[in-house]
Design a protein that fits this description.
This protein is of the alpha/beta class. Helix content is 36%, strand content 21%. It has a five-stranded mixed β-sheet, with helices on one face. A three-stranded parallel β-sheet has the order 4-6-8.
Length: 165
């Protein structure tokens, strides 16, 4: 019997892409889930950032989030659920896309400004800290518990934390 996996995502509104011809906004929009990142979100952000990078009219990309958290990291529930159900390709594909997104954020030719309000944890902290510029509010809390277990995605974040002032 084949297993099916359905997370019932509202994929239309998880990430909002707005702006004008020169400034684009990428807005994480899962406030009820503290903007935890899933495969759909990471794929959409990666796809749009690639388009923005190659569009000469776009001068700036602003990364922000709706709700009280910037991002509480990866959607661990979906990763564990898919793994337990035998769908190993989901977590592998998610982490592959996340690594590609993190690389693009660091190497992007366009300046990216990350507006951090609320918690930015793990993958969410990595996402926000890899932007060209970071604007942090007095309500922001950034940390990455993965530094204790040294995952490849989060290793670079410890270097960035040391440089924050």
């Amino acid at each position: 019997m084949a297993m099916t996996l359905n997370f019932n995502y509202d994929t239309e509104n998880q990430v909002l892409f707005t702006g004008n011809s020169s400034v684009k906004y990428v807005i994480l929009n899962r406030p009820g889930k503290l903007n935890t990142l899933n495969h759909v979100m990471v794929s959409q952000i990666l796809k749009n950032l690639r388009l923005y990078e190659n569009d000469f009219s776009i001068k700036l990309v602003i990364l922000k989030a709706n709700g009280k958290a910037f991002s509480a990291g990866g959607d661990i529930v979906s990763l564990i659920t898919s793994s337990l159900a035998g769908h190993w390709t989901y977590p592998l594909s998610f982490y592959r896309k996340l690594l590609m997104l993190n690389h693009l954020l660091v190497t992007c030719k366009k300046p990216i400004v990350s507006l951090i309000n609320g918690v930015a944890i793990g993958g969410g902290a990595a996402l926000s800290m890899r932007a060209t510029f970071r604007v942090v509010t007095e309500n922001a809390v950034c940390f990455s518990f993965q530094n204790k277990i040294v995952t490849a995605i989060e290793t670079f974040i410890s270097i960035l934390y040391k440089r924050l002032k």
